[in-house]
Amino acid sequence: MSKDLRITNNKFIDQTTRISFKFDGKTLYGFKGDTLASALLANNIHLVGRSFKYHRPRGIMACGSEEPNAIVQVGSDASMTEPNTRVTEIELYEGLEATSQNCWPSVNFDIGAINNFFSPLIPAAFYYKTFMWPANFWKLYEYFIRKSAGLGKSPTKPDKDIYDHRYLHCDVLVVGGGISGIMAAKTAAKNNLNTVLIDDKINLGGTTLFQQNECFKINNTYSNEWLKKEIESLNSLKNLTIKTRTSLAAYHSYNYLLARENLTDHLDINEKKDKVRQRLWKIRAKKVIISTGAMERPLIFNNNDRPGIMLSSSIKKYIDYYGVKCGQKISLFTNNDSAYETAISLNNSGVNVNSVIDIRDKTNSIIVKQAEELGIKIHWKSSIVNTNGYKKINSIEIMKLTDDGAAVVGEKIKEQCDCLGISGGWTPRVHLFTQSGGKLKFRDEDNVFLPDKSELDQISIGSCNGDFELDDVIKNSVTLTNKFLNVDNNDYENLEIISSKETTKKNIWLLPSDKLLSKAKQFLDFQNDSTANDIKLALREGFKSIEHVKRYTTTGMATDQGKLSNMHALGIIAETAGVKMGELGTTTFRPPYTPLTFGAIVGRNVGEFFDITRKTPIHDWHVENKAEFENVGQWKRAWYYPKKNESMHDAVQRESKAARDSAGMLDASTLGKIDIQGTDASEFLNRVYTNAWSKLEIGKCRYGLMLNEDGMVYDDGVTTRLGENHYIMTTTTGGAANVLSKLEDYLQTEWPELDVYLTSVTDQFATISICGPNSKKILTKVIPDLDLSDKEFPHMSFKNASINNIKCRVMRISFTGEHSYEINIQSSFGKSVWEKCFEAGKEFNITPYGTETMHLLRAEKGFIITGQDTDGTMTPVDLQMDWIISKKKYDFIGKRSLYRSDTIRDDRKQLVGLITEDPKEVLEEGAQIVSEINKKPVEMLGHVTSSYFSPNLNKSIALAVVKNGKNLKGHKMFVPMKNKTINVTITDSVFLDKDNKRLNA
Amino acid sequence: MFLINCPYCGERDQSEFTAGGEAHIVRPKQPTELSDDQWAEFLFMRKNIKGIQFERWSHAHGCRKWFNMVRDTSNDKIHAVYKMGEKPPIK
Ligand SMILES: [Zn+2]
C-alpha cells in the first residue's frame, strides 16, 4: 500500500485493521471499511480492465453502482466465482480474490488492444454488419469474438451459497438513506407509521455524511455533523426498521418492490460459511418515498476514457470518506459548481489541485470564491481537447471555447496531471420511478428528466426529484413528506441553512476538439465502447428512435445499463437531429436496477425444492422393486420394472405379455378423482360429458368424454354412480387440476342454479388396478367375501367392500381390454393392500407393470390417451367415437361446435391404425405420413401419435391421425424417415380382441 | 404485481389468482338455435382494449371463487371487484 496515497485522519475507515486481498494474483493490502476500488486506488492501481471492443485500458471511474469500467471476476472456485462485479461495490474482506476481465493474457499486455489501432475499421454495429453474412461462417467468427470479448466466466458448478426470500409489509418504505431519506423516515416513524428505510451502502448518510465544507452548514454546524446527530436520533424510533447493504432491485405496480440484502459478501472468507448470503425481500408498502439521489455525469471529449479519468464526486468520496488520494496532481474539468467542492476537499487534504477547467464564463458563487481564495487556478470558458497517457493519464490539453461553445480557439495549453476529475452535472436517479410506471418530464434549465405523474402512492424527494442545492433538498423534502404522509412534523421548521448556490449553468453534450469529429475518440458508453461518432453514424444511416440507436450502437446495453451514458446519447441525438430533448423521450429503465444473482432470484427453491414432487402412496414399493420412474406433470410414476440386465424394451415386452397371459398390476393412484355430490349431480354430468348420465344405475360405471366449448376433446375418464346424488369422476393424471377448475368455473358462472359440490379426492385414495385372465382369482383371495360373479359384479360396475376391516371401493373397469378390477382405498393403506395383492398374485405370476406397458396395452385395444393421440384439435367424430355423442341431449359443453362448418368437414384428420409392411419395423411417434414420395412439395397427411411393438400380436402397431383417414382404410401410405421410407397400411384402430371377449374371460 | 381485493377474502397477492378473460359473456341458453356466425361470436370473439376492461378472475390458490374485475389495462389500476351475477358498479 502506498502510504502517501492515504490520509490518516479518517473517520470511516478502520486503519488499525489491515486486510490482505489478491488482485490479478498479486497480494495487496487495504483496511477494514475499504471497497476493492478504494483499496486498489490506495495501491495506486487505476488500470483494472479493458474495453469491450477496442480493448483500451480502462480504470476505476466512479464509486458506486454506476461504475462502467472496473468490473472484475471475484473468486476462482468453480461453484462460487462471480463475473461482472463492480469493484466499487465490493467491500474488502480477508481472502478476497479478484481478477480483471476482458483482457488476455493480462490487463497490462492485451492482445485484443490491436483492435484499437484498427478502430476506424470497427464502427458502430461492426459485429452485426460484418458477421451476419454469410450465416454459416458465424460458427467460425463466434469462436474468435467470444475469446477476445469474454465478459467474465460463469461458474461451472452448482452454487453452494444459501439464499433466502422473505416478505415484508409496511406503511412507508423509504428507498435511499441520504439526507432527505433520513428526514422522511424519521418523520414517518415519529408519526406512528410502520416505516422501513433501506440503503445499498454500509451506512446511512449519502454524500452529506462526508460533506464538511464552510459553504454548507445547518444550524451553525457542518452539514455532516448535523446529519450525524439526525442518524443517531433514528435509533430511538420504535416504528423504524433500517436495512443497509440492501439495494432495491425492482419497483412494480401496486407498490410491490423487490430488494436484495447482502448479508455475508463483506465477511471474511472463513466467516461466510453456512450463513445466508443474500436475502430477497418481497415488499408490499402502502406508501413509497424514493430518495435515491442523483449521479454525476461525465463529460464527453476527446480521449475521455483513460485510466485516471474519474467522476469528480467520486474523487471527493475517495478522499473524504475512504481517505484515499486518487492522484498527487489532480486536474478537474466541469460545467457546474460541484467540482469546486472536490477541489476544496482535495486542497484541505493536502492534494495538489492543478487547476479547474470550467466551460462556463466566470461565475461568482460562494464556493467558487472559496476555491479562488484557496489559490486554486481556474480556466474559465475552456475545454479539454485531448488527454495523453496510455495506461494512465499523464497530461491534458486545454483550449478556449468560442462564445457558442461549438469550437475551440487560441493557444493550446498542456498541463501535467496524474488524475482528472470530470463533472458534467447531475442526473436524478429516476430509474425506480419509471420502473413503477411513472411518467417523466424534462427540465430544460439543467437538462434533467424528473418524476412527473404516477398512478401509485409514492413521491420522489431530494436530488432524485431535481433538488441539487442543500437548502432546496431540505426544505422541499420536508414539505413534500409532510404533505404526502398527511402529518405535521415541525422538527425541521426553523433550520438555519447555509448553502452555496449555483449562479450559472451551461451544458455542451459533445465538447468540441481541435481534431475532426471522425478522428476524435469521445467515449459515451465506456463499457461497450460506443463513441459520439457511432451515434452520429447511426443517425446518418437513418436510425431515428432512441431505442433503435441504442441497439445499433449498443450504447447503454452493457452490464451497467448505460447509467452514465444515456443522457449524453439522448443529448447528442437531439442536437444532431435538431429536436428538443424533452420531445425525444427517454429509454426505458428495466429492472433490476443493479444485477441480481440467480441465487437471490430462486432463493430456497433449488434442488428438490425447485418444484413439487408428487409421489403415490405406493411409491416406496416401486423404489424397493427397482422401478424406473417417469415424470408425469409433478408426479413420479413407475415407468417399467427392469429385471437384472433387462433393457426397457425387454421389460415392457415381458410386462405386456404377462398382463394378457395371466395377471398384471398397475399403480393408478395418480388418476384425478373428483367427488361430485348434490341433487343436480346427474344433470351436471349430462351437461359436461357428451353422453347421457341420467339413466346410469347406482353402482354402475360409465366412460365419459369431455369437450371444450369449441368441440375439441379435452379429457376423458370413467365416472361411477355411488348413490342417488353422489358420483366419483376420474380424470387423466395430467388433466386433474384443470378439469376441476373448468367444472368449478361452469358451476359458479354459467349454472349457479345447480345444486352440485365438487371436491378433489385424488390424494385421498390409492388406486390399484389388477388385470388379466387371472385377476378374478387373485381378487377372490384378497377380498374373499365379495361376489365376483359376472352376474353380481359385471363389467362397468362397482361394489363397496372391505379389506381387513378397511373400507374400499372396487370397480370392474378396464383400460387394457382385459378382465380387470380397480381397488380404491384410503391412501395410508395403499402400500399394504398393494403388497397383499402382489402376495396373492404370486402363484399366478402377477407382474407389476408401469406406464409404458399401460400405454402399449391400451394401444393394442385402440384406446386413446388424451394429450397423446389428441392435441386440442380433435373432435369425438375425428376420433371415430361418434357412439359417445348423445343424440337425445339438448345441450352439453361443445355440442354446438360439433356441427360448425369446420368440424363437419370430411377431410379433417381422423384417428386410424397403422400396420407396417415389415412387422418388425416400429414407427417413430411424430413421424409424418404421406401418400406420395416422389412429389415435391409433398402434402403431409398426418402423423403417428402412438407406436409400439406388440408382443401379444407379435408385430408393430401404431395409432395415427390422417386426413380423411376414416375413408382410407386399406390404403397404402408412406412414412418418410431420414434414411429410408417405411411402407404402411391404414387399418382400424382396434388391433386386438375386436369383440371384447377378454373383458369377461 | 397486483394487489387484488377478493370479494370473499380481502386483499391478496396477484400470485394467488388466475385471470379468465373477458367478463359478461353469457353462454347462450339455446346454442342449437344459433347460426355458425352467432356461435362463433360467443366462442371466439373477445375484446382486447387499452383502457377500462371487464375481466373474470379466480382466487385459484385461495377460496377458488370466480369474480369480476374492472381494470384499466393502460395502467393496471383496478377500479372495482364484484361477485359473479352482480351488475358492474362502473359503466
Ligand atoms: Zn378469495
Write up this protein.
The complex is a heterodimer of chains A (1001) and B (91). With 1001 residues, chain A is α+β, with helices and mostly antiparallel strands. Among the domains of chain A are: 134 residues, 2Fe-2S iron-sulphur cluster binding domain, sarcosine oxidase, alpha subunit, N-terminal domain (Ubiquitin-like (UB roll)), CATH 3.10.20.440; 205 residues, FAD/NAD(P)-binding domain; 126 residues, FAD/NAD(P)-binding domain (3-Layer(bba) Sandwich); 90 residues, Orthogonal Bundle (Arc Repressor Mutant, subunit A), CATH 1.10.10; 41 residues, no CATH class. Chain A has 23 helices and 50 strands. In chain A, strands 8, 9, 12, 13, 14, 15 and 28 form a 7-stranded mixed sheet that branches. Chain A has a 6-stranded mixed sheet with strand order 41-42-43-40-34-44. A 6-stranded antiparallel sheet of chain A has the order 46-47-48-45-50-49. Chain B is mainly beta. Chain B has one domain: 2-Layer Sandwich (Folate-binding fold). In chain B, a hairpin with a 4-residue loop joins strand 5 and strand 6. The interface between A and B is medium-sized, with 24 and 29 residues. The complex binds zinc ion. The site of zinc ion has 7 residues of chain B, from loops. Zinc ion binds next to loops of chain B.
